[in-house]
Design brief:
By secondary structure, the protein is α/β, with parallel strands linked by helices. It is 21% helix and 33% strand. Helix 1 links the parallel strand 3 and strand 4.
């Protein structure tokens, strides 16, 4: 069997993203940046079920501190709306400028950035959830109706 396995993960809460995992090396590390605990826990479960290691941050400030202290982060998965000194889009630009090899997945259920606003080496997946009152209800996304920029809904994110 090949040392590579392919796992189709639902990183954007319903939009398929294919990740290539190289079993001949230490698992790639994904930094999950999400202020809502349940969404963060779900994203971490998906990342770990795919065979990747995960690190969690509640906001961009904590995520920057993690990136400054580690050199093994291959991918950042971040919500756009977050508390703190910068939102997810500003954070994505900071990551792209300071750590260019790190790939970025941006998600938002409320905000749609223009394609030009997404940094290089990044993907945006939208419409993962709808708000009803104060509770968030996760809805399965239909790939043909999901808002994606910077990559196709079935994009390959190669973390080798």
């Amino acid at each position: 069997m090949s040392p590579y396995s392919v796992f189709a993960a639902v990183l954007s809460y319903g939009t398929p993203v294919i990740m290539v995992l190289d079993h001949s090396h230490v698992p790639a590390v994904v930094l999950v940046v999400e202020d809502e605990m349940l969404l963060r826990m779900r994203a971490v479960d998906i990342v770990e079920d795919a065979g990747f290691a995960s690190v969690e941050a509640l906001d961009a400030d904590e995520a920057v501190a993690i990136l400054e202290s580690r050199s093994d982060i291959a991918l950042v998965f971040t919500d756009i709306q977050m508390p703190g000194s910068m939102d997810g889009l500003g954070f994505a630009h900071a990551v792209h400028e300071r750590w260019p090899p790190v790939k970025i997945i941006l998600v938002s259920g409320q905000w749609k950035p223009a394609d030009i606003d997404i940094p290089a080496n990044s993907c945006f997946f939208g419409n993962p959830a709808r708000r009803r009152g104060e509770r968030e209800h996760l809805l399965p996304s239909e790939p043909d109706k999901a808002d994606t920029y910077g990559c196709d809904a079935g994009a390959v994110i190669d973390l080798r």
